[in-house]
Amino acid sequence: MLQQILEKQAKLESDIGSLVDEVRAMRQSLDELVNLLKFQRTAEGQPAVQVVLPPISPELLSEILRTMRWSGEVYFPHFRTVTHVPAGTQVVFHFKLPSGYYCTCPGPLVFESDYYNPNITLEVYVDGEPITPLGALPIYPTGPIQFTYGGLWFKRVEVTIVYTNNSIRDVNISYAVDITMIRDFIFESYYKPLVEFTKERLSDMIVLGGGKQL
User: Fold this and answer.
1) What pTM did the predictor assign?
2) Higher confidence at residue 33 or residue 61?
3) How far apart are CA 47 and CA 98, in angstroms?
4) CA atoms within 13 A on the CB side of 58
5) Residue 202: per-residue pLDDT
6) What is the CATH number of domain 77-179?
7) Where do runs of H (alpha helix) occur along 72-210?
């Protein structure tokens, strides 16, 4: 009995030690980020020094979110679905975001088909805005078709895909993408402020270089 208690105590101490190591690693990552983004000003409020900032991109912010390990608040799933589109029809696929979550993945979206024909097309919309602005994109020539969300990488409501099959043959089209899902409060309290902070610092650097403030 005593041996079992000692073994459980040793295991608990080991688990606590691992947890402490993870917290220290997280604290170090955050300290490095803070030091990187520090920007000092003179007493007159003018920028005192220039700093080199990493380009704030959806990819970089997603990597930072990964290191914070917010279990249950941030997800990074791989999403794939197949849509059957009979000949001579149009099928609309809706990927609706769960309530309380935003999607910040930049893509790429990858489409594949079991039959390729220029009369089979697709259109993609993010919250009602097209990311295929030149119109319908043909499923042609053969092979995977991929593109990014571009400037519409931030999604609040849904992604809509319109498949139009004007060929004489039924087709199955797959859609795959790596997703970054974050809770809305994380976006408002962390993601958005970091982007705005970086924009201000870049604006300061532009002013120092003789340009206009963003």
Assistant:
1) 0.66
2) 61
3) 42
4) 21
5) 73
6) 2.60.120.380
7) 184-186, 192-208
